[in-house]
Every structure is written in C-alpha cells, then in structure tokens.
Design a protein that fits this description.
single chain; alpha+beta
C-alpha cells in the first residue's frame, strides 16, 4: 500500500494511492495515518478494495505521510561514497542525531532558510517507519517491527551544524528542514530495501545520485542498534543517511541553496518530493 495524508497543514486526512495513481479517502476507516494505525490497522487497510474508497478530487496538498511522528531520528555519514567525498573516516557505529518535530513538513511544502543562513544544504534519504513497539531486538527481528518506507529530505544548515559548536541538531532542526513523504510504502511492496536508486536535483541539475546498497550500516543494523539504546514506538521515523553529492562536498567550492531554488528528490518506488526554497522573515 501507499498511504498518504492530504489537506491543509494540521488538518490532514488519511488516504491511499491506488494502482492507477488515484488518491482515495480513508477517512471512513481511520482517523489518521499515525502510530496507533500503523501498529493495529495495517492489515485491515490492506484488505480494503481501493475502488470502493471515495476518489479525492483535484490535487490537494500532501502532508507528512506519517502523522504525529514521535521521534525523527537521523543517521549521519552512513554512505561509503558520501564519507569519501567528505574526506571522513567510516564510523565504527551508526552516528545518531535527532531532528526536532517542528522541522517536519509535507513533501512539497516550501523549505524556508532561517535568518542568517548562508550554507543551507540538501540530503535525500531513505526513511524507515516503525510499525511495532520494539526494544532490544536483533537484526533478524527488525522487519517484523517496520511498517514501511518513505523519503526524507534532511535539509541542513552547515554553519549552524558545524560552526556554532554543540551537536549537529542545531543545523538540522530549523523549521521546514524535515520534508517527509509523499507517501509511506508498506514493506511488502519493497523487494530489496538495500538496492534502491535515489537522486536529488536542484533547479533541474542532478546533484545526488546513489543507491541504498552503499550504506555503511544497513536498515536492519540501524534499527537493531537504535532499539538497544531506546524504545522505538509505532510512528517513529528513522532517516538513514545520504549518498554523495551534497552541496557542502562540492569541489572545488561548496554550493548551497538560494532563495527560489527548487529541489526535486526521489527514491525508487517511494515517489517524488519537490520543494521551493524561501527565506524566513
């Protein structure tokens, strides 16, 4: 299934994308696509006949594909080819930072650079959506606790991240810096999550090209590792790192976003995001 949330920010309705790409309204069956629904009602939703659901007219805004995300956890420096472009050693364990929930927006909402930003950067990433509460699980148990996958743009302000001291969270948590969606694809539709092509364009120019095969720590390793640090709850999202081609790694000089730039990013089987860059007042 492809599960979506559509409508005005804060008032999104639950939906499903059918095999023909038609948006269908799930409001008669669930209140939202959130942790409790992922934990308890996925089987019920998968049994529905999509053609029996009301088609949604027009092209409504898409919200984050998971509602009321509990934790948005991010793994840094997790692609071997990205570590090489940044001239950094491979980490011995997954690097974890958190992105504030106030950063979460829809897949096509504007990304607003914060005041003083001069080094806002892009990062296409695979998101893992937790569907079942877990703690101290093994790698072999991970997929029993995963609901599905989505796209995350881990937008980053490099000055805030690197030059303001403290943790990476400073440069990762600015408002609008966490587009999630367009939809969550349930795990049964992804044959091999460790072999998904991905890209990110800025103004039509290809910046990032990668594949989840070059992850240093794969999805099973990441989820098992995090479950040994904290309880993972249904509706938590883990953003698993980015391939090469970030602006901060460009040679001979870094390249960063400007007002009016348009990012388009995609992961095989998971749809497309598109954001226009603005500046916070």
């Amino acid at each position: 299934m492809k599960l979506v949330r559509f409508g005005e920010a804060g008032s999104e309705k639950p939906g499903m994308i059918d095999a023909d790409g038609v948006l269908r309204d799930l409001s008669a069956h669930v209140d939202d696509i959130d942790g409790p629904v992922l934990a308890e009602k996925l089987d019920m939703l998968s049994a529905l006949e999509p053609s029996s659901l009301p088609a949604v007219e027009g092209e409504p805004r898409l919200g984050p594909c998971v509602g009321k995300i509990g934790k948005l956890m991010c793994i840094g420096l997790n692609y071997s080819d990205h570590a090489i472009e940044m001239d950094l050693p491979f980490p011995e364990h997954p690097i974890l930072f958190m992105k504030a929930n106030s950063a979460i927006v829809g897949p096509n909402d504007d990304v607003m650079m914060p005041r003083g930003s001069t080094k806002t950067d892009w990062e296409v990433e695979l998101g893992v959506v937790i569907g079942k509460r877990c703690k101290y699980i093994t790698e072999d148990e991970v997929m029993d606790h995963v609901a599905g996958f989505c796209i995350v743009n881990d937008v980053s302000e490099r000055t805030f991240q690197i030059e303001l001291s403290g943790q990476w969270t400073k440069g990762k948590s600015c408002d609008t810096f966490g587009p999630v969606g367009p939809w969550m694809v349930t795990k049964d539709e992804i044959a091999d999550v460790q072999n998904l092509d991905m890209y990110l364009d800025v103004n039509g120019t290809r910046m990032q090209t990668g594949n989840t095969a070059t992850m240093i720590f794969d999805v099973r390793q990441i989820v098992a590792h995090l479950s040994n640090l904290m309880t993972l709850e249904p509706g938590d999202v883990i953003s698993t790192g980015t391939p090469p081609g970030v602006g901060g790694g460009m040679k001979p000089e870094p390249v960063f976003l400007k007002v009016g730039d348009v990012m388009e990013l995609s992961i095989e089987g998971l749809g497309v995001q598109r954001q226009t860059v603005g500046m916070d007042a």
